[in-house]
Amino acid sequence: MLALTQLVVVLDGTIVTIALPQAQVDLGLTDVQRQWVVTAYALVFGALLLLGGRIADYWGRKRAFLVGMIGFGAASVYGGFAQNAFDLILARGLQGLFAALLAPAALALLTVSFPSGKDRTTAFAVFGAIGGSGAAVGLVLGGALTEFASWRWCLLVNVFFVIAGVIGALIVLKESKAEGDNTYDLWGTLTVSLGLGSLVYGFSLAEEGWGSLGTIGFLALGVVLLAAFVWIETRVAQPLLPLRVVLDRIRGGAFLIQAVIGSVLIGATMYLALHLQIVMGMEPLVAGLANVAMTVVILACVPVCARLLPKFGPRPFMIVGPIIVAGGLLLLSGVTVDGGYVTHILPGLVLLGIGLAMIFVPLQNLALTGVEPHDAGAAAATVNSTMQIGGSIGLSVFTVFYANAAAAGLEAGEPQLQAFTNGYSAVFLAAAGAMLIAALIAGFMIRGTKERPLVQQDSEGQDTLVSMH
Q1: What GO molecular function terms would the record report (predicted)?
Q2: Of 38, 179, 334, 383, most Cβ neighbours within 10 A?
Q3: Using an 8 Å Cβ cutoff, are 40 and 12 in contact?
Q4: What is the pTM of this model?
């Protein structure tokens, strides 16, 4: 039931992607508004996740889960009946708001329910695999709903998931919360939310030029606000994000890799969906089904990776996985206007599935290794926040690559579809570069041996061994 929650949260990041062409025509969205339908969800979700995690810790994780579920359903209904761009973008932002309460509560409940042992490894493997495949599942479901019903059902379908989640939570879940003196870090919340928002908005303006006043101004403001956030966190009694959660080398590396994965799943996946529909002429359902190969490969590889993880440890998976994903993206960068699915798309998706499975199995367990129960919600929120913010920034940056390459093609007199294809190819190349950076991060920051222990520092700064079991 908790894994289903993760599926819904990740799924909603992409389910509307496949419906965007029809929603754009129906509501008269501009290209900028089309992008913000995706960005609004990821940005609000990522910016408020830390606060959502602390609310879950202090207020009660089961209670936060239920409120998040119900609010998410209400926002979905609002979006399903949107009459203009403002309604749709606002509804997506509200979905992100309640997802920011729902997601860390679910992951924190999983953390305290499986504190150690083989069951914990299995639980996180299942949780990560389902959440990781949610992006592709969203494309398939969105395609089916758009083609046979309406793009509006890509939002309204959440009501069924919400009903199942609420009923399951009332029956199965037990309340848990952090003990002790709990106060909210309001200044930390304000600075991190505005700082992340400024960064994402600054990157979205980069299409106009990296040297423009708006781009430089918002990026600089974002950096200053995030620096202020770090300063605040070192001085408040109950920080929104205890720096001990992210300063651990292993967890810090896992968070950085999660951000890169988010950029690929949210950013590159959107442009693949556009290529399948606009250039290859696929109907929404067919375009969604075209991504099933990646999901099938992920689900097939996860059990194998879970069995091999105790033998080799997490480090090889976290290095090799991103390299394989980068290889898949390099294959996708070879797309052409007249290229076929089997020859130009499928091989890349298969490699993406293999690499992502290798990453998903150990990733969230690494990100939460050694976290104290009092910080479970904050750590869980950081896991999700890094993915969503990475996706928001990635989508904005990839859009710049796409726009520049497509504009260059049009200026050179190339046909429109060829110019679009140039843009999509540039996005996949940029995403491949990001995944190679993730492999380097894993090589420097994820440590461990074949016998499975991980090295992390204790409260006194001494290295201790923590078993993956």
Answers
A1: transmembrane transporter activity
A2: 383
A3: no
A4: 0.77
